[in-house]
């Protein structure tokens, strides 16, 4: 595992000059955590009935809402980001705001890893995080580094597959006052979960495949909400919307 980590780091330094050409890839699909390195020790994410994968989604700035960072283990970790120009050899981002849900993991191994993973970001939450995107063949790898010298490495299986048949989801209107509509070309049923800006889960509901579905937000407070859509294959799509 150590040899693999050294190999990835060396390639990252060699191709760092081309990172800005790859920058849009950061916002494409969902990144899957493959390795976490804390104080020089490697930790492999758990895979079990409770945690099938640890995902990370970046959402671009839209409708006046800053870029969004959204990752999860048992709990969700959300944040608004600012992106900086290169501070050294790599570009970077920082958190302007963040919040987490408060759900207990059923399995202790998931709780232990979740604490390690979230603390990778929390321990440097006031600082910048440098990142790099490299390609091994057609498979992109995202590397994120905190100021303590720790690192998180993500793959992107959906970009690697280059599968244009993956379902798409759109939500409207945004901002919304009463009914939020979800439109998809997915051939499978899917689950919608909505969180508020404090990370509290408001609803989780199953929806039928294809066509247009909706959720009633008429009586919700005004503000920003995060919507997570998961299909039966485990693919997660993250959206956000404003309630007026």
Please provide a brief summary of the model.
The protein has 4 helices and 16 strands. By secondary structure, the protein is of the alpha+beta class.
Please, could you describe this protein's structure?
The protein contains 4 helices and 16 strands. It is globular and about 50 Å long. The protein folds into 2 domains: 25-155, Lipocalin (Beta Barrel); 169-243, Sandwich (Immunoglobulin-like). An 8-stranded antiparallel barrel has the order 1-3-4-5-6-7-8-9. It has a 4-stranded antiparallel sheet with strand order 13-12-15-16, with no helix packed on it. The termini are far apart. By secondary structure, it is of the alpha+beta class. The longest helix is centred in the middle third of the chain and has 15 residues, at 108-122.
Q: Secondary-structure blueprint of this entry?
A:
Blueprint: H1 2-14, H2 19-22, E1 31-38, E2 41-43, E3 55-59, E4 68-72, E5 76-84, E6 92-100, H3 108-122, E7 129-136, E8 139-145, E9 151-155, H4 157-161, E10 169-172, E11 179-184, E12 190-196, E13 201-207, E14 211-216, E15 223-231, E16 236-243
Keywords: Signal
Signal peptide: 1-21
Pfam families: Por_Secre_tail (PF18962)
């Amino acid at each position: 595992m150590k040899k693999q980590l050294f190999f990835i780091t060396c390639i990252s330094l060699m191709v760092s000059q081309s990172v800005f050409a790859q920058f849009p890839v950061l916002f494409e699909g969902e990144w899957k955590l493959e390795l976490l390195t804390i104080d020089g020790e490697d930790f492999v994410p758990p895979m079990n009935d409770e945690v099938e994968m640890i995902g990370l989604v970046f959402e671009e700035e839209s409708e006046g809402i800053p870029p969004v960072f959204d990752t999860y283990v048992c709990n969700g970790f959300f944040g608004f980001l600012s992106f900086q120009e290169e501070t050294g050899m790599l570009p970077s981002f920082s958190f302007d705001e963040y919040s987490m849900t408060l759900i207990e993991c059923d399995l202790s191994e998931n709780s232990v890893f979740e604490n390690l993973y979230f603390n990778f970001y929390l321990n440097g939450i006031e600082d910048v995080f440098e990142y790099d995107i490299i390609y091994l063949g057609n498979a992109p790898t995202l590397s994120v580094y905190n100021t303590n010298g720790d690192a998180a490495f993500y793959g992107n299986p959906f970009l690697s597959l280059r599968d244009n048949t993956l379902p798409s989801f759109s939500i409207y209107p945004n901002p919304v006052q009463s009914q939020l509509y979800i439109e998809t070309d997915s051939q499978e049923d899917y689950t919608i979960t909505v969180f508020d800006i404090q990370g509290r889960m408001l609803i989780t509901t199953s929806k039928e495949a294809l066509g247009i579905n909706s959720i009633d937000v008429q009586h919700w407070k005004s503000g920003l909400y995060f919507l997570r859509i998961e299909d039966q294959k485990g693919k997660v799509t993250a959206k956000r919307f404003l309630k007026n």
